[in-house]
Design goal:
heterotrimer, A mainly alpha (318), B alpha/beta (351), C mainly alpha (295), A: 318 residues, mainly alpha, 14 helices, C: 295 residues, 11 helices
C-alpha cells in the first residue's frame, strides 16, 4: 500500500509540518512580543522586583535575542518556556497533558461527526427527493447554523436540568468537575461535532448522488450484488474520496470549537487553557498552546493525505 | 429448432422528462435461442441499449418499464421480486458495458471485482473464486493472470479492462451474455481481438450472446441473426446472411451502405444517412423513418407499417420494401439518398 | 478602420441580463430563501429602531425583577441585574449585523482586488498570495483572530479588523480561481488582444462575470463572522460590557441555566435563527445563480 515514494513523501511532509509549526509560533511570538515588557506581565510590581521579573523571563533582552532563545528552546529541547502568571510552571508538560485530555473529547467528536455525517448523507442520497431527503438537507442547515455553545446549552438544559431525575446527574453541568470518565465525554463531543456532522452529511449526500450514477455501480448491479454491498463497497468508498478533503478543516473546526466547549463543560484541556490564558494575559502559554495547535493541524493534514492513499489506489505520491 | 431461452414480448420502456414522455423502447418483441448470437443494431437513441437494460431491469431513473414481458426460461423477469431478479443478474444473464474504463470500480482490485460476481451467487468459496478468476482471465487471454488479479483497473490497458469485464460476465457461466457496445471505446486492433474472443467463447461455451452495436461490421463478424432498431422499434429482423444480402427495410439498406469497405474505390465518399434521428417525445405520424426515407410513398406519411415476414425468417416493417424499391425506383443506382429521392414523394404533395 | 478597431475593443460577452433575471426568478421560487430574506429585513428594521428607541434603556439596572421570566411588561424577561432582555437583544442585533456586514464589506474590498490581480497577472504576486493562503489553511484562523483581538484590545472595530485579517484570503482564493479561468475565455482574450486597458479588463469584464460566486461567498461569510463575534463574546474577550452582544448574553445565561433558562435560550435562539437565515439565503443565492450546483 505504501510504496517507497509514499514513504519519502511522508518524510518530506513531516519536515514541512515542522517548518510550518515553527513559522506559526514565530508569527505569534513576534506579534505578542512586540508589546512592551510590562504589558506582558500581569503582576503589578515595581522597582527591583519588576526588573528582576523581566530578567527572569528574558523580557529585558532585545526582541531578536528573545526570539532566538525561544526558537533554540523549541527546536533543541521542545521547551515552550514558562508561564508568565504562575512562575516556575513549565509550559511543555502542561500542554502535552492537556492535549491528551482534549484529544479524548475531540476524538470522540470526530468519530461522531464523521459517523453521523456519513450515515445521514448516504441516507439522504438513496432517498433523494423524498421527504426524508428534504428533512435531512434542511436540518443540516439548521445544524451548522447553531453555535456549539447553543447546542451545549440546550443539551445541558434537557439532560442536566429537565431530565435530571432520569439521568441522575450523569450529565450535570460540571464546571471544573472533570473526572475524566467516558460518560462525561458524550455531551461535549456531541455539541462539538454536531455542526460539522451537518457539513459532512451535505458533502456525503452530494458525493453519493454523483457516485451512484456511475457506470461501475451499474456494473455491480448487473453482477447481481446485494444493494447493501453495492452501497457500501462500491458507492460509499468512492464517495468518501471528496469527503476526506474536508477532514483538515474539520480538525481545525473541532479545535476552534473546543475552546468554547471545554470552557462550557469545565474540561481541563487545551481549549480551556487557551481561553483562560488569554483572559489571564498569560501570553507565554498562548504561544505554547497555539504551537501545539499548529502541530495538530499539520498532523491531521498528513493523515488526510495518507487516507487518500488508502482509499484511492490511483493516488500515489512519487 | 430448440425452444427460445429468452422471449421479449411487446416491451415498452419510457422516460418521463420535462420535455414530455420519451418512448425509448416502444413495443419490441424478439426471441433468443440457446447458444445463439444475436445482434441488435441501431443509431444512438434507437432504444437498443435501453432494450438490453430493460431485460435485466437496470433501466436508469427516470425510466420505467411500462408494459410487456421478458420471459427467461418461460418465467417473466418483470414479475420477479427484487431478490429473485438479483439472483438472475450476473448468474443466468450477465451484461458487459461500453466503456471498461468507467465500468470497473477504480478503488477495487480487478481480480476481486471478478471474485465478487461468483461470491454474490454463492457459486464458490473465496479460495475457489480466486482460482477461477485466474482461469477466467487466462481464458480471455490476459497474460500473467496471477499477477493481474492484484492490479487495480487503472493499471490495465483499455483492451485488458474489457477482457476483465468479459471474464466478469462469464464468471458464473451464464446462459446469456449481453454485450452493450463492448468495442466502441477501444482501438481498432483491440476491437477485432475482443470480437474474436466473444465469437470463440460463444462457440466453445455455448453462451448465447446479445450484441448491442451501432456497427453493422461488428454484426457481420460475430452474429448469426440481427435485429435492426429505429426510434424505439424493430424495423427489420432476420438471419445475418440474408439481411446483408438483401435488406428489405430502407433504413437497413442505408445502414449497410454506410459501412466503410476495404474494397471500395478510394476517395469515394462514405454515404451517411441523411437527416437526424427523431425526437422520441415527438414522433412523426405514420412510419417513423419516413422523414428520412428515400423511398417513401404516400401511405408512409399516414400509417405505421407492421413488422411482417417478407421472406422465410426475415421480418420487415415497411410498406415499400427494398425489393420493390430496387425494381421500381432504381435504388441500386441511386447516389443521392436524400429523403424522397427515390420515390420523389415530398411532404407538400401528400394529401 | 478606426471604427473596426473600436468595435473590437468592445469584447462580446456572454449574455448577462438574462442570467440575473433567471437567477432572480429562481430565488423568488425558493421558499426558504424568501422566508429568510423577510426575517433579515425585519432584523435590520429592529436594529435600526434600536438606534432611537428601545422599550427600556438597555443598560438600565433593576427595571424588572432579577431573573424574571417573560411578562407583559418585559416580553422576554430580565437578566441577573434586572435589565430588560428585549432591549438588550435589540441592541445586540446591531452588534451582530455591524460585525457580519462590516466584515464582509472589508473582505470584499481587500480580497477581490488581490484575487483579481493574482489570477489575472499570475507571476510573483500570485505566488505570494497562494503561499499566504496555504499557510492560513493550516492554522485555526479563528484562534489567531482571537489573539489579534486581544493584542489590539477588545472593541467592535478591532474584532472586525481581526476577522478581516484572517478571512480575506478565502475571498481572494475564490476570485483568483475565477480570474484564472475567465482570463482564458475568448471574450477576455479578444479584449486583451485588442489592447484594452488592464484596469478595464479586470473591473469591467472579469469582475462582472465572477460576481455570482462572489455574492454567494460574501453572503455565507456574514453568518460565519457573526458566529465568530458571538464566540469571542461568549468567552468574554469580545464586545465589552455594558454593550450587549448575543454571545455575551448567552454566556451570562449559562451561569444561571438551572433557574433562569430563558436567559440563555433567548439570545441563543436569536443567534441561531439569524445564522440560519443568512445560510438559507446564501444557499438560495447559490442555487439561483448556479442551477447546476443543485441536487
Amino acid at each position: 500500500m505504501f510504496t517507497r515514494g509514499t514513504l519519502i513523501y511522508i518524510a518530506q511532509r513531516i519536515v514541512m509540518i515542522a517548518f510550518t509549526v515553527l513559522a506559526v509560533s514565530s508569527i505569534v511570538f513576534l506579534l505578542i512580543h512586540r508589546l512592551p515588557g510590562d504589558a506582558l506581565l500581569s503582576e503589578r510590581v515595581r522597582g527591583n522586583a519588576y526588573t528582576e521579573l523581566l530578567h527572569h523571563y528574558g523580557l529585558d533582552l532585545p526582541l531578536y535575542q528573545q526570539y532566538w532563545n525561544f526558537i533554540v528552546g523549541v527546536v533543541t529541547r521542545g521547551d515552550l518556556g514558562e508561564s508568565l502568571v504562575n512562575r516556575g510552571l513549565k509550559i511543555t508538560p502542561l500542554v502535552v497533558r492537556e492535549t491528551l485530555i482534549s484529544a479524548q473529547v475531540g476524538g470522540v467528536a470526530l468519530i461522531f461527526t464523521i459517523g453521523l455525517g456519513l450515515i445521514l448523507g448516504v441516507f439522504a442520497a438513496i432517498r433523494q427527493n423524498t421527504w426524508i431527503d428534504y428533512l435531512l438537507t434542511t436540518t443540516s442547515v439548521i445544524g451548522y447554523s447553531m453555535p456549539n455553545f447553543v447546542i451545549a446549552a440546550v443539551l445541558i438544559l434537557v439532560f442536566g436540568v429537565w431530565l435530571d431525575n432520569v439521568t441522575q446527574g450523569t450529565f450535570f453541568y460540571q464546571l471544573g468537575g472533570w473526572k475524566g470518565g467516558a460518560g462525561q465525554l458524550w455531551l461535549p463531543a456531541f455539541a462539538l461535532g454536531f455542526p460539522y456532522a451537518s457539513i459532512v452529511a451535505r458533502l456525503t449526500r452530494a458525493s453519493m448522488l454523483e457516485v451512484i450514477r456511475q457506470d461501475y455501480v451499474r456494473t455491480a448491479r448487473a453482477k447481481g450484488l446485494r444493494e447493501s454491498i453495492i452501497l457500501i463497497r462500491h458507492a460509499l468508498r468512492n464517495a468518501l474520496i471528496p469527503v476526506i478533503t474536508i477532514l483538515g478543516p474539520l480538525v481545525i473546526g473541532i479545535i476552534t470549537g473546543s475552546v468554547v466547549i471545554e470552557n462550557f463543560f469545565g474540561i481541563p484541556g487545551l481549549g480551556k487553557e487557551f481561553a483562560q490564558s488569554i483572559l489571564n494575559r498569560d501570553y507565554a502559554i498562548v504561544i505554547g498552546v497555539f504551537t501545539m495547535y499548529a502541530a495538530l493541524v499539520g498532523l491531521a493534514n498528513l493523515l488526510v493525505d495518507l487516507a487518500y492513499v488508502v482509499i484511492d489506489p490511483r493516488i500515489r505520491y512519487a | 429448432m430448440s425452444s427460445p431461452i429468452l422471449q421479449v414480448r411487446d416491451l415498452r420502456t419510457q422516460f418521463k422528462t420535462d420535455g414530455g414522455m420519451v418512448r425509448a423502447v416502444d413495443g419490441v418483441s424478439f426471441d433468443l435461442h440457446p447458444g445463439e448470437s444475436l445482434g441488435i443494431v441501431g443509431e444512438s437513441g434507437s432504444g437498443k441499449s435501453i432494450t438490453a437494460l430493460s431485460i435485466l431491469r437496470l433501466v436508469p431513473d427516470p425510466g420505467r418499464i411500462v408494459s410487456g414481458e421478458v420471459l427467461f426460461r418461460n418465467e417473466d423477469l418483470l414479475k420477479l421480486d427484487d431478490e429473485a431478479m438479483r439472483e438472475i443478474r450476473g448468474k443466468d444473464i450477465a451484461m458487459i458495458f461500453q466503456d471498461p474504463q468507467s465500468s470497473l470500480n477504480p478503488v477495487l482490485k480487478t481480480g476481486f471485482q471478478i471474485d465478487e460476481a461468483m461470491l454474490a451467487h454463492k457459486q464458490a468459496s473465496k479460495h475457489q473464486a480466486h482460482q477461477r478468476t485466474i482461469e477466467l482471465l487466462r481464458k480471455v487471454r490476459i497474460p500473467a493472470p496471477e499477477r493481474r488479479v492484484k492490479d487495480f483497473p487503472h493499471q490495465l490497458s483499455g483492451g485488458m479492462r474489457q477482457r476483465a469485464m468479459i471474464a466478469m460476465g462469464l464468471a458464473n457461466a451464464p446462459s446469456i451474455l449481453i454485450a452493450d457496445e463492448p468495442t466502441t471505446a477501444l482501438d481498432v486492433t483491440v476491437q477485432a481481438q475482443i470480437l474474436e474472443l466473444l465469437g470463440d467463447l460463444n462457440r466453445e461455451l455455448g453462451t448465447a450472446i446479445i450484441m448491442i452495436t451501432h456497427n453493422m461490421g461488428v454484426v457481420a463478424g460475430l452474429c448469426s441473426r440481427v435485429i435492426v432498431m429505429y426510434a424505439g422499434q424493430i424495423v427489420e429482423q432476420g438471419p445475418v446472411d440474408e439481411i446483408f444480402e438483401a435488406p428489405q427495410h430502407p433504413y437497413t439498406w442505408s445502414l449497410l451502405r454506410s459501412i466503410p469497405r476495404v474494397d471500395a474505390v478510394r476517395h469515394e465518399r462514405l454515404r451517411s444517412i441523411e437527416g437526424i434521428a427523431p425526437d422520441l417525445s415527438r414522433l412523426p405520424k405514420g412510419c417513423r423513418f419516413h422523414p428520412r426515407c428515400p423511398f417513401r410513398v404516400e401511405k408512409c406519411f399516414h400509417d405505421e407499417p407492421p413488422l411482417v415476414e417478407v421472406k422465410p425468417g426475415q421480418l420487415s416493417a415497411c410498406w415499400v420494401t427494398m425489393d420493390r424499391a430496387r425494381k421500381e425506383m432504381g435504388a441500386d443506382d441511386l447516389v443521392d439518398i436524400r429523403p424522397g429521392a427515390g420515390s420523389g414523394v415530398h411532404p407538400g404533395e401528400v394529401r | 478602420m478606426a471604427t473596426a478597431a473600436a468595435a473590437i475593443t468592445q469584447p462580446i460577452e456572454p449574455e448577462q441580463a438574462s442570467l440575473w433575471s433567471d437567477a432572480w426568478r429562481r430565488l423568488r421560487r425558493n421558499r426558504l430563501a424568501l422566508v429568510a430574506s423577510i426575517y433579515l429585513v425585519f432584523l435590520v428594521a429592529v436594529a435600526l429602531v434600536a438606534l432611537v428607541w428601545t422599550p427600556y434603556r438597555m443598560s438600565a439596572i433593576g427595571v424588572a425583577a432579577t431573573y424574571s421570566g417573560p411578562s407583559p411588561a418585559h416580553l422576554l424577561g430580565a437578566d441577573e441585574l434586572g435589565r430588560d432582555l428585549l432591549s438588550r437583544l435589540m441592541v445586540g442585533a446591531q452588534v451582530s449585523l455591524v460585525v457580519g456586514v462590516g466584515t464582509q464589506i472589508l473582505v470584499l474590498l481587500v480580497g477581490v482586488p488581490i484575487g483579481l490581480l493574482a489570477g489575472y497577472y499570475k507571476g510573483w504576486i500570485d505566488s505570494v498570495v497562494t503561499f499566504i493562503i496555504s499557510v492560513f489553511y493550516g492554522i485555526p484562523d479563528v484562534l489567531l483572530a482571537m489573539i489579534l483581538v486581544f493584542i489590539l484590545g477588545p472593541s467592535l472595530t478591532n474584532i472586525i479588523i481581526a476577522i478581516v485579517a484572517t478571512r480575506w484570503m478565502d475571498m481572494a482564493r475564490l476570485v483568483r480561481g475565477q480570474a484564472l479561468s475567465l482570463r482564458e475565455r475568448e471574450f477576455i482574450e479578444a479584449g486583451r488582444a485588442a489592447g484594452a486597458r488592464p484596469f478595464r479588463m479586470l473591473f469591467g469584464h472579469i469582475l462582472p462575470n465572477a460576481l455570482g460566486p462572489i455574492i454567494v461567498q460574501a453572503t455565507l461569510g456574514i453568518p460565519s463572522a457573526i458566529l465568530f463575534e458571538a464566540f469571542l463574546s461568549f468567552l468574554g474577550v469580545g464586545v465589552q460590557p455594558p454593550t450587549p452582544s448575543w454571545g455575551s448574553m448567552a454566556n451570562e445565561g449559562v451561569q444561571t441555566i438551572q433557574y433562569a433558562p430563558h436567559m440563555v435560550l433567548i439570545p441563543s435562539i436569536a443567534l441561531s435563527i439569524t445564522l440560519m437565515a443568512f445560510n438559507f439565503l446564501g444557499d438560495g443565492l447559490r442555487d439561483a445563480l448556479d442551477p447546476r450546483s443543485r441536487r
